[in-house]
User: Which sequence fits this backbone?
């Protein structure tokens, strides 16, 4: 059996959690539930069964300070930085070079850093099963989440026949990946069955992955090989900077998974959510009061229900409100109807338009 | 014709405008509309037609610093301080001693410091008419506001026959003062007619007022005469402190107006509101946008209507809300449904219970 390695992807930026998520502090560095940030929870989830020296993070150079401050248990050499963001495939490719140097036959588990996962034990069983399949089938394995509703915010994976590895966890060969559907199409998927949400968690041998890059993304492969020559040398930073800037942005889904034939899916029945908005943070908060309010900080609620209030550094009083989100961060305050949490992008757009960059 | 003097009553405390009104900064010192505080607006309203050396303020000793900082145009000797609050009659009595020393036959206009009045010209005409009646009738004159709706938050004044002084402003003799009614009673007043809201603005000769105190509140009068002996002497502060603490708290309405016979009412048809809650500040704000939102500070509104946002030192974003009040002050934030603005006292109660005095 091969050794397991974990690669946590932490390069994302975004403003869905404004005013908490800022340009300098994207979502993965936020503590949305309790004391640990999402990336710290992600690292811990893997550290339960993978040695810390085998856990890698790939992130953006601009996030180095915050990443290091939150991953003190990981070795600095395991933190890989992109000079600029190029989507998931180049990021994984870059990190894979380092892991391949150490153990080309290692099994690599690639995971987002900013998702919610509950039930760590079941999660581990799924990963173990995926690692077994990746090893035995020399394939690319994805964790698929059993869909709970016709979500339009996720990509879907359609499966074919079940395979008999890693029971009792169910696994299947994959027939195709599909982009985010509209609600009618999503409803069709749920009726038809055999469709899963694409969790963004992938498992494969490093060598299998690099072979796939060579086959399906040969230009990127050539660039990676040029970068590889500089690893461990003084020239690395400069060479990386020069070569990586020319790389085309492409996702692993589009660049490899949709093209490769030897793809499998492990059925994930643990609680999973990609935390796309404050609404989902409210929903998954497990410390609600008897009026279904979730609060952080000194909060006074008078006749208020089903609401989320985050204000660690202020006193917030809410009177006579239902279904509202209130978030205070520094000198910014968000007050948002829960079902309008998606519209925070309009807020960020307006702040940008007003050139109030200090609030972004 | 006698000289006019103005006495602005500014000793009130309260928390209806929490988090802006604090123990150390009651409502009259807040700028609720534009740059001027309510007391500054009150002083200015009288300074349009009364010389500043004839404008007095009576306040609490504890408010001396904030009062002086907001009334730089007034002479310090015109700022009279109660050592402790004893309601309106002793406060007016104390100030009347100073004005009587200067001009016992002067006409004194007593006004709250924390009400909203619009249409300064009509207001002035009413005051002029009231001064004329006070002078000619040697009576006590109150400004009554024509009721717009069956308000239960105001006292009412019932009038008898019209008097023929100061036209075209209408005036009446007063038959009785009544306490805040319930809604059925208030409806009856409006149907019956001849009832007015008690504005808390009174006009009388200083000598007439002091005679009324002597007749209807002889104990207070005796105390005032004892205080009078110390005016202008080094012993004043100590004597005032000693004597005033023993004075009974009593309002001018209960102590004199309800008992006196020679009382008149001038009909006030200017815009008047006692600003009892944030709801009224919202209603009377004249700078609303096309969605009927009133805002102060850097405010981003997305699909939000009929709302009030005050946040001079923060960026506040409000998304998908109707009829909401958001107020930021220092490290406190209020989010309140507009029709629940009265419940701010419950917030203050809860903060008190939690012993978080720094937020009060």
Assistant:
């Amino acid at each position: 059996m091969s050794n397991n390695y974990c690669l946590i992807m932490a390069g994302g930026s975004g403003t869905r959690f404004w005013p908490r998520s800022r340009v300098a502090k994207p979502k993965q560095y936020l503590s949305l539930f309790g004391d640990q940030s999402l990336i710290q929870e992600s690292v811990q989830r893997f550290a339960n069964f993978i040695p810390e020296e085998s856990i890698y993070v790939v992130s953006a150079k601009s996030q180095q300070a915050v990443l290091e401050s939150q991953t003190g248990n990981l070795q600095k050499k395991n933190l890989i930085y992109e000079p600029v963001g190029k989507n998931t495939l180049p990021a994984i490719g870059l990190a894979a070079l380092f892991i391949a140097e150490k153990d080309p036959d290692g099994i690599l588990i690639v995971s987002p850093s900013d998702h919610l996962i509950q039930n760590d034990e079941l999660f581990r069983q799924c990963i173990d099963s995926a690692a077994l399949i990746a090893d035995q089938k020399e394939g690319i394995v994805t964790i698929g989440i059993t869909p709970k509703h016709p979500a339009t915010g996720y990509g879907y994976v359609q499966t074919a026949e079940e395979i008999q590895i890693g029971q009792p966890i169910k696994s299947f060969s994959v027939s195709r990946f599909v982009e985010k559907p509209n609600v009618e199409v999503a409803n069709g998927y749920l009726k038809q069955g055999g469709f899963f949400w694409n969790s963004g968690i992938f498992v494969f041998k490093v060598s299998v992955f690099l072979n796939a890059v060579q086959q399906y993304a040969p230009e990127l492969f050539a660039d990676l090989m040029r970068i590889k020559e500089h690893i461990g040398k003084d020239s690395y930073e400069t060479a990386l900077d020069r070569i990586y800037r020319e790389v085309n942005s492409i996702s692993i889904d589009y660049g490899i998974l949709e093209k490769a034939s030897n793809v499998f899916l492990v059925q994930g029945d643990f609680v999973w959510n990609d935390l796309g908005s404050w609404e989902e943070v409210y929903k998954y908060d497990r410390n609600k009061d008897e009026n279904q309010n979730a609060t952080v900080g000194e909060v006074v609620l008078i006749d208020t229900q089903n609401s989320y209030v985050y204000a660690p550094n202020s006193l917030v009083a809410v009177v006579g409100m239902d279904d509202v989100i209130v978030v205070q961060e520094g000198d910014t305050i968000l007050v948002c109807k829960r079902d309008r949490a998606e519209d925070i992008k309009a807020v960020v757009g307006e702040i940008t338009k007003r050139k109030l960059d200090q609030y972004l």
